From TrEMBL:
<keyword id="KW-0813">Transport</keyword>
<dbReference type="GO" id="GO:0016020">
    <property type="term" value="C:membrane"/>
</dbReference>
<feature type="transmembrane region" description="Helical">
    <location>
        <begin position="346"/>
        <end position="366"/>
    </location>
</feature>
<keyword id="KW-0812">Transmembrane</keyword>
<dbReference type="Pfam" id="PF25954">
    <property type="entry name" value="Beta-barrel_RND_2"/>
</dbReference>
<dbReference type="InterPro" id="IPR006143">
    <property type="entry name" value="RND_pump_MFP"/>
</dbReference>
<feature type="domain" description="CzcB-like C-terminal circularly permuted SH3-like">
    <location>
        <begin position="233"/>
        <end position="294"/>
    </location>
</feature>
<dbReference type="InterPro" id="IPR058647">
    <property type="entry name" value="BSH_CzcB-like"/>
</dbReference>
<dbReference type="GO" id="GO:0022857">
    <property type="term" value="F:transmembrane transporter activity"/>
</dbReference>
<feature type="domain" description="CzcB-like barrel-sandwich hybrid">
    <location>
        <begin position="74"/>
        <end position="146"/>
    </location>
</feature>
<protein>
    <submittedName>
        <fullName>Efflux RND transporter periplasmic adaptor subunit</fullName>
    </submittedName>
</protein>
<feature type="compositionally biased region" description="Basic and acidic residues">
    <location>
        <begin position="310"/>
        <end position="335"/>
    </location>
</feature>
<dbReference type="InterPro" id="IPR051909">
    <property type="entry name" value="MFP_Cation_Efflux"/>
</dbReference>
<keyword id="KW-1133">Transmembrane helix</keyword>
<dbReference type="InterPro" id="IPR058792">
    <property type="entry name" value="Beta-barrel_RND_2"/>
</dbReference>
<dbReference type="InterPro" id="IPR058649">
    <property type="entry name" value="CzcB_C"/>
</dbReference>
<feature type="region of interest" description="Disordered">
    <location>
        <begin position="310"/>
        <end position="338"/>
    </location>
</feature>
Length: 374
């Protein structure tokens, strides 16, 4: 075995011994320990740091629209009056359901009655009729919309349009539904641009199987323009601090209900994630929900040393590293060498002064008592 190989093996061996035999040190000022109820009160949740595809996005606002081809109207082929209404605004109907009955104006005893049936599945969006109301063939009686798929139209700045093409993905947030996020795919652009706003409508197809999305709802768009692979990123809510001093809170791997405050260097960000250039490792568990509140938490009063001592059953230094045999021996020697409170010079001087003062007071009292007795 040559000298170079021996040197390499020695380095590897030392590294293994270090990693398995020593406990890492950390900054005690960045350590936070909470009681279990404190963790629950803050509603703390975690997310594991992972390497992912990182999307570059542009932001836009817009609205939900119906798809024109999914809008139908119910009307009567004959003139007459309405004698029965079986469906109203907000009702879901199936194709072929009888919705309205119209009594014809043609003579008869009784006059002929025509049943008007739903032309398609959908939601009755608008009703224009009342019981007993006269109708004409030109009248629109009910508007029926199939909302199982809708359009979401984003007002995109004109200078960003060149970055988009049919099939481009977008993450669409709907404030009216509590911030629900839905993915959509670019279908086409509006036929006209908004010359005043400098935007053009980008139309995304959006599934809506539960019919929660309704025309006119406001929507916020994060439109994906490109993507980078193998980027370490954390949710945006995990990041705290100001622009020059970004930090995250990481779940302590050894101590329950404890956290480490770690400074990080950040890169790009999108609507959901922030790129982490340095400061974290894949697999770290960062605090997401409750991260902001944790930055103001006072903790349970346990220091890093106290928490590690309790967790491991042996003594640690203030920085969290395990005390060596030499450090333990030095600590015991220092404690043994320290004089007791009764032998320290200042204590002895105080005791002697007190004794002399007490004696003088006694003598003075005796002298004052003798003349009075005489």
């Amino acid at each position: 075995m040559n000298a170079s190989l021996c040197h390499i093996l020695t380095i590897i061996g030392l590294g293994l011994c270090t990693s398995f035999g020593a406990e890492s040190s950390e900054d005690p000022s960045n350590f936070i320990s909470l009681r279990p109820e404190g963790v629950r009160n803050l509603g703390i949740e975690y997310r594991e740091v992972e390497v992912k595809d990182f999307e570059r996005t542009i932001f836009a606002i817009g609205t939900i629209r119906e798809i024109p081809s999914n809008h139908s109207v119910l009307s009567s082929r004959i003139a007459g009056r309405i004698i029965d209404v079986k469906a109203f605004e907000g009702d879901q109907v199936k194709k072929g359901d009888v919705l309205v009955k119209v009594e014809s104006r043609q003579p008869g005893s009784p006059p002929p009655v025509i049943e008007l049936k739903a032309p398609r599945d959908g939601l009755i969006f608008t009703s224009h009729i009342k019981l007993g109301e006269p109708v004409e063939p030109a009248n629109e009686l009910l508007d029926i919309m199939d909302l199982r798929e809708v359009w979401a139209t984003a007002q995109v700045p004109e200078d960003a349009v060149s970055q988009l093409k049919p099939g481009t993905k977008a993450h669409i947030r709907i404030p009216a539904l509590g911030g629900v996020n839905i993915d959509g795919e670019l279908f086409r652009f509006d036929t006209k641009a908004d010359s005043k706003g400098g935007t053009i409508g980008a139309i995304f197809r959006v599934p809506n199987k539960d019919n929660r999305l309704r025309p006119g709802m406001r929507a916020e768009f994060s439109i994906v323009t490109s993507s980078r692979k193998n980027v370490m990123a954390v949710p945006r809510e995990a990041l705290q601090g100001d622009a020059s001093n970004r930090v995250v809170y990481v779940k302590h791997i050894e101590i329950p209900n404890a956290f480490k405050r770690l400074p990080v260097q950040t890169g790009e960000k999108n609507d959901r994630y922030v790129e982490i250039i340095s400061g974290l490792f894949e697999g770290d568990e960062v605090v997401t929900t409750g991260s902001y509140a944790l930055s103001f938490a006072s903790g349970s009063g346990l220091s890093l040393k106290e928490a590690l001592d309790a967790a491991h059953g042996h003594e640690h230094n203030e920085d969290g590293s395990k005390m060596t045999e030499e450090q333990l021996a030095a600590k015991k020697g220092t404690e043994a060498e320290q004089p007791s409170a009764w032998t320290q010079p200042l204590t002895l001087l105080f005791m002697a002064s007190s004794a002399i003062l007490l004696a003088l007071l006694i003598i003075s009292g005796i002298r004052q008592a003798k003349p009075s007795q005489a």
